[in-house]
Design goal:
34% helix; alpha+beta; 9 helices
């Protein structure tokens, strides 16, 4: 890539051949910077995909199919009659960074550029319509939106060719590789049953049957675990409802309370929040 000249004003096919001569796989892009669609035979990947795709298959389609996987350094393919119509309609040239041993950090706005200047090691920079492409030597998995305004284009992806850029290209740093590493989902706290005073009133159960209480506790557990927002408020209202029905007759036991606390903690509530919600509900009801 060090000997490439700026070919942005040259016909797309000429640009692609220049890239191919420098071992950069290229392909035509239509308006909107998107690849040409697959032919009828390859529609919806029915052919099994290009041999160099993850879903390797028997596809031998000579056309411009399979997006980034169509990128090639073969001048005979680029100049073939099957690609001629695409070049006539091409609005730009794309290339497969991973196929050229490169990774592109696509910075889409000024804020993203500011972040890169503060965070990433200096390397070759290519100006884009709205931001910059920072090019590094080395390949990695591609990913979109790794942070606001930042995409990673390398393996199994394509980038628009906008010229060779300026600056010395450096090796792909770990700080860029780390951008695609997903943080593990935090484990929910292990439920901890906490004994809370539950007895109230005269200690005489007026419900005649324990089935009524069991159904009430089961419904309360379900209400808590089905909460999709305002979990803490849902937990408090549920505790309030249980206590208003069962709190004065003395039929609630620590086992029943533990079931409610376990359901709340499974939704992310801490033991302290559970205790506070239970105490506040009792205070509200004067228990």
């Amino acid at each position: 890539m060090t000997q490439l000249t700026d070919v942005r004003r040259v016909a797309p096919l000429h640009s692609a051949l220049t890239l191919a001569a420098n071992e950069v796989p290229s392909l035509p892009l239509r308006a909107g910077k998107v690849p040409f669609g697959n032919c009828h035979t390859c529609a919806k990947n029915a052919c099994g995909g290009r041999p160099n795709m993850k879903t390797a298959g028997p596809c031998t389609c000579p056309g411009v199919c399979h997006a980034w996987a169509a990128a090639t350094t073969d001048p005979h393919v680029l100049n073939s009659s099957q690609w001629e119509a695409a070049w006539r309609q091409a609005a730009a040239v794309g290339y497969h960074p991973g196929g050229a041993g490169l990774t592109v950090v696509d910075l889409d706005n000024a804020a993203a550029i500011t972040w890169a200047l503060r965070t990433l090691p200096a390397t070759r920079i290519v100006p884009t319509t709205r931001g910059q492409h920072w090019l590094y030597r080395g390949v990695m998995q591609s990913a979109n939106a790794v942070r606001p305004g930042v995409d990673i284009k390398s393996l199994m992806s394509y980038a628009r060719w906008l010229g060779p850029g300026t600056g010395h290209m450096t090796a792909l740093p770990n700080v860029v590789r780390a951008l695609t590493v997903k943080e593990p989902t935090p484990a929910r706290p292990t439920p901890q049953a906490i004994a809370v005073p539950t007895r109230g009133g005269d200690g005489v159960c007026r419900h005649r049957t324990s089935a009524f209480l069991d159904r009430g506790i089961a419904m309360a557990e379900q209400r808590i675990t089905q909460a999709r927002e305002a979990v803490h408020a849902t937990v408090y209202r549920t505790f309030l409802a249980v206590l208003s029905t069962h709190g004065r007759c003395g039929c609630l036991t620590d086992t029943h309370v533990a079931r409610l606390f376990t359901a709340a903690q499974a939704m992310g509530e801490s033991p302290r929040h559970c205790t506070d919600a239970w105490t506040n509900a009792r205070t509200t009801l004067g228990l």
